Amino acid sequence: MATSSKAAARRSLRPHTTPNVRENLRREKERLLARQAELETLAAPIIEVAAQLAKIDALVDARATAAQRRIAQLEKARDTRIEKIRAEFATKIAAARTDAESTELGLTPQEHAHEAALQLDYARAIAAFTEGASATELASVLGVGARKAKKIIEQAKTDLAASSVPRTGVETASVPTVDVAVGATSPAALAAVGS
Questions:
Q1: How far, in Å, are 135, 147, 174, 194 from residue 124 at the CA level?
Q2: Model confidence at 194, in pLDDT bands (50, 70, 90)?
Q3: Which of 25, 137, 169, 182 could staple 133 via S-S, CB 3.0–4.6 A?
Q4: Which residue stretches of the chain are H helix?
């Protein structure tokens, strides 16, 4: 009996007819299709919003790319302009250095002659001043120390002796009077020329 009962139980687990199997498969298929349609309906809003978000992401990416491209263009334009300005100023600096070097080489003959005349006028003015004033008073006028004033006086005497021009007669073409020679020039400038 036990054996027949087990056999009966096993027979109950298998389909009895082929049509039953086919029907079960059809129903399962319909159930799955219905569920799939239901899921698609439920997912439709998600898909729609996701598509819109994807468009926004694409727009953001496009704008970011455009911004980076613009930045790259500006940087390139900046670098080009900097190189152009650097080249222009390099030329100007080279010209200025050439001028500076030519200036350091000395004055023109005319400028040397004019400088010598001015130095002689200055020496005459100092000599004329010291005939009626002391070295201390000269130092006060020039805004220098007494020792510096004495050196200026000695230099003036040396310049006058070297030029073989009398110490009197301060009037010249460039310095008409003693007042012009001493008063028209600032103390600092006179000290600079004397030194």
A1: 15, 20, 12, 12
A2: very low
A3: 137
A4: 2-13, 18-104, 109-132, 135-142, 146-163, 178-183, 187-194
Tokens of 168: 């009197």
Could you give the CA distance from residue 159 to residue 119 in angstroms, rounded to a whole number?
A: 8
- Give, in order, the Cα–Cα distances in Å from 114 to each of 50, 109, 110, 121, 191: 90, 9, 6, 11, 18
**Do 153 and 138 meet the contact criterion of CB atoms below 8 Å apart?**
yes
- The answer to pTM > 0.70 is no
Least confident of 19-23, 50-54, 123-127: 19-23
- Using a 10 angstrom Cβ sphere, with 0-12 exposed, 13-18 middle and 19 or more buried, the burial of residue 126 is buried
